């Protein structure tokens, strides 16, 4: 009889231990995000930059214990809309969206808001909606300003001298970042166009005339070919003010086809510090790019995700700049940096962002 009582007591104690352990484990799991699903909508895998953004975001969220539903739309507006609608149907706990064209997402984002799903706008500002909680990006006007300042310094524009020719290759008209970048560029270069230090022979200097839909490398190549044949058959093109590394690749191809060599190669700018762009800079076929540390951006965005899920306030550093037509979106803006042949090792090799073999193997 005593033995049976003792066995029952031991059984109860073991059961209590199992319950306690289970509760403890569940408590710890919940603290690191178990049972929380995060939807991450990225625009395309055609650009190395977005692949890196997506993988950084997924890795950092999974480290915190979140489940991640990552989707790429391959620059197809309707595909991204369907992906986001699926994420809402899956009842994700938070949406992170880098849009292809945010105007197509307004109704879906309103549905997310009605379902109580917080939305974080990633790098590209979601326009004309009040469904956004926060925005994580780089200082996009600052990106343009750095491109303009680099051209100003490299071409010695402030020193006067002989006029130099320039053509502009600006970003997609459906991306608010592109508008801000253009504003930053012209904030530096407009005075040189006005006083004749810079001459744009095509006459295309407005954003509407120089923007390239969906940041298309192929259109940049075609535009450059048209400029070279139409306006520079007997003159040298000195500066290609490009807003994106992909544009710079197209410009490079057009220049090579037109017979440009190392001796008369123009200044070519870019943005994103892609592996191929850095290699081209080392080889002298691109002059500079803007380095945007996407690992830092992912860190800030993940911090926003964690905060909204836990009902806390994330770190922000701008509450005035980003008016999307419906609201001023609280934002965290990371700092962009100019990269050229003189500092690429410090910025992307010594920091561990890329490896030397990444540059050697770039194609």
Can you describe this structure?
It is a single chain. The strands form 3 sheets. The protein has a 6-stranded parallel sheet, with helices on both faces. It has 3 domains: about 1-25; about 30-140 and about 295-335, 3-Layer(aba) Sandwich (Rossmann fold); about 140-290, Rossmann fold, CATH 3.40.50.2300. The chain is an alpha/beta fold and about 375 residues long. It has 13 helices and 12 strands. The chain is globular, with a radius of gyration of 25 Å.
- Tally of helical runs: 13
Give the CATH topology of the largest domain.
Rossmann fold
Mean pLDDT: 91
**Residue share in helix:** 40-55%
Strand line-up across the major sheet = 2-1-3-4-5-11
Domains, number: 3
Strand content: 5-15%
The unreliable regions are 1-31
Tell me the CATH superfamily of the largest domain.
Response regulator
CATH structural architecture of the largest domain: 3-Layer(aba) Sandwich
Distance between the termini: 81 Å
Name the helix and strand elements from N-terminus to C-terminus, one letter apiece.
HEHEHEHEEHEHEHHEHEHEHEEHH
Largest sheet: 6 strands, parallel
Classification by helices and strands: alpha/beta
Number of strands: 12
**Cα-based radius of gyration, to the nearest Å:** 25 Å
Which CATH class of the largest domain applies here?
Alpha Beta
Summarize the structure in short.
The chain is an alpha/beta fold and 363 residues long.
